[in-house]
Amino acid sequence: KAGVTQTPRYLIKTRGQQVTLSCSPISGHRSVSWYQQTPGQGLQFLFEYFSETQRNKGNFPGRFSGRQFSNSRSEMNVSTLELGDSALYLCASSLSGQNTEAFFGQGTRLTVV
Amino acid sequence: AQSVTQLGSHVSVSEGALVLLRCNYSSSVPPYLFWYVQYPNQGLQLLLKYTSAATLVKGINGFEAEFKKSETSFHLTKPSAHMSDAAEYFCAVGFSGGYNKLIFGAGTRLAVHP
Q1: Which residues pair with A104 in a beta bridge?
Q2: Could you tell me if B43 lies within 8 Å of chain A, comparing CB atoms?
Q3: B55 in contact with chain A, both atoms CB, cutoff 8 A
Q4: CB atoms within 10 A of CB B112
Q5: A2-44, pLDDT tens digit by residue?
Q6: Phi, psi (rounded to 5 degrees) for B61
Q7: Which residues of chain B are within 8 Å of residue A58 when distances are taken between CB atoms?
Q8: Is residue B61 a contact partner of residue B19, using CB atoms and an 8 Å limit?
Q9: Does residue A54 contact residue A48 with C-beta atoms inside 8 Å?
Q10: Is the backbone peptide bond immediately before B30 cis, with ω within 30 degrees of 0?
Q11: What is the 3-state secondary structure (H, E, C) of A62-98?
Q12: How far apart are the CA of A19 and the nearest CA of chain B, in angstroms?
């Protein structure tokens, strides 16, 4: 069974640009969550999607957005990039329901210059 | 509000020694508790999960954790450390109504020396 796939693995962007990250969950998983990991702030929850609907959101500015497609694949977008957005972005997939095991992808390392 | 505190950002043990990584949680309702491990340049891998079925939870790679409600703790242990255990470990809490949102502790980096 394939794991969670995140693309791309590495990304370098310039301040002010926008970026889109992709996540393909484990087959059969309908919940996809996104996290930002930085040395200073640690792991912070961005949002969760289930059946194409955002059902939970963290405390991030509106520049961070996401969506989920009918096949459960998810994308997150960051507009008007800032240097502070440099981070490892992790996607996790889970079965439906609550507090089920989250399986993480390897992440996308975003560097903003 | 839910929160997780991991005592000790760095822990160093000798190979073969006991591993003890500490986690305390703050939750107004019975929590769901998890331990994850992260190797360099990798995502997180689930070690174990507490869901109230049993207070002592056994996980992968010989790790286990004990839920102590009176101490609001969920410490991770392994009787004998192996070099391959060197990694960063994260305690996380989920909560009823939070769907699959996890709140993570700051992490503990475990070093294992010969």
Answers
A1: A92
A2: yes
A3: no
A4: 19
A5: 799 999 999 999 999 999 999 999 999 999 999 999 999 999 9
A6: 60, 25
A7: 101
A8: no
A9: yes
A10: no
A11: CCEEEEECCCCCEEEEECCCCHHHCEEEEEEEECCCC
A12: 20
